[in-house]
Amino acid sequence: MEILLIIIFFVLMLYAFSKSGTAKKELLQKEAKITDLNREIHQLKTEISNLNSDKRSLHDKIQRLRTDLSNLQMDKRAVDQKNIQLKNQNDALSKYQDIINIQVECEYLLKIAERDSVKLKERAQQELDHAQLQAKESRRITREYTEKRTKEVELLYENAVRESQRIIDHAETKAESIGGDAYRSLREANEIADRIKAMKCN
Questions:
Q1: What pTM was estimated for this model as a whole?
Q2: From CA 170, how far away is CA 31, in angstroms rounded?
Q3: Does the CA dihedral 113-114-117-119 come out positive or negative?
């Protein structure tokens, strides 16, 4: 009778060991999945860093365009001032009929310069508006992409952790229900062995 009990006890221990091994294997698979998720998070951070670099580049371009616009406005003021000076000179020289053609030519050149200045100002403003729209769209895309990927990774991680804990709890419950005191003794023996190993390492 005692031999039969020993055999049953031994079989239960083997069964508990096999279930525990399966649970550990599933746990390792979950940990590998978590490692993959962490690697994907790192890749996402790299992509976000690249997008931020693009954003800074667009910001620099906007600053350059603003500087160009400011310079054009200064040039426009200089041209306007020159126009006033030339107009005053033309007024002073208008009494001289022999140089009327020179006055007409100067006015023509001034109009061309003013027209070119307006065109340059409009083009600079268009480029500035376009760069600002690009920067705004880039920020929106970056924010939406980051939020979406972060939520997906967090959800996968939470599911993996819950599933791992559920498998471990289930395996331990099953092992305890099957092995009873034998499984508890085995678990305590493993804990003692881990403590001894930790003490040796220290």
A1: 0.29
A2: 18
A3: negative
